[in-house]
Amino acid sequence: MIEFAGRIAVVTGGGTGMGRELVRQLTAEGCTVAMCDVSAVTMAETKRLAEAAGLPQGTRITAHIADVGVEDDLIRFQREVAEQLDTDRIHFLFNNAGIGGGGSFVTGPRDEWERTFNICWNGVYHSCRAFLPMLLKADRAHITNTSSVNGFWASLGPNVSHTAYAAAKFAVKGFTEALITDLRLNAPHVTCSVVMPGHIGTSIASNTRQVLAGDRPLNEHELKQARRRIASLGLDPSKVSDEDIAKLMADNARRFLEDAPMTAAAAAKVILDGVRAERWRILVGDDAHALDAAVRANPEQAYEPDFQHPFTLAASPPVRK
Length: 321
Prior knowledge:
The protein is α/β, with parallel strands linked by helices. It is built from eleven helices and nine strands. The protein has one domain (about 10-215, about 260-315): Rossmann fold. The chain has helices spanning about 15-30, 40-50, 70-85, 110-135, 165-185, 205-215, 220-230, 240-260, 265-275, 285-295, 305-315, and strands spanning about 10, 30-35, 60-65, 90-95, 140-145, 190-195, 200, 260-265, 280-285. Helix 1 (about 15-30) packs parallel to helix 2.
């Protein structure tokens, strides 16, 4: 069994959602954590919550601004971890950060597609590159990469394009599975896990909008995509104003957080229990287990409308991360 007490962990995307809960639960067990995010404000709240719960003696939390989609940011993050924690090694790397967007390869903006793919895939790849030397110097280490149910089922349902996120999450899953043999041959003291959550209550929908668009109003492409989805539901999109669409998207993001079948805290516990038990494949949520079983049982039908309908709402929000 892997133990966290007295060890050092790095968590990307530690400002909200599962990343925040990983930081809180790891530090509660006496694991020092260095987290990164694009928001100093959200990381400060994560740190406050962890410290308010009471940290075991000697446990530390450091916060670092870094965009995982930018390799230089991750290289700087690694150097800051080494300097601030005065260490040449870490024991755990949790590649958790991610956004959505980039739905259609055919009609969507290329910059949004590549931004989503870079964060969700290159964020994992470059983080592993940056921290591998520190993992290798530990007596024992573990890499945990967060994929998704969309890493084995590249869909949100028959009426939604979802290519950038799904392609990235497939890459994360394949990379992690390939690492199992690579590490066993070349660094047997380092192990790895791939995490595949279903619908977890996080702020990823609203965070994605902030990362991709900041505070700007919905653009023409976003409005067009939203009206296309409204039409697919048998409604008249011409009767829905731009303001109503913005409100609908905000409400979807709220419901994705508040109405999820599993909280971020519960998901983080499942992840840490899986790492502790040295499981390489960690499904998170009843919906993830059900979808995994269904895809394996009938892969040729996995992208047919009749197959997707029972899982669309369970596996993803109406406006996806």
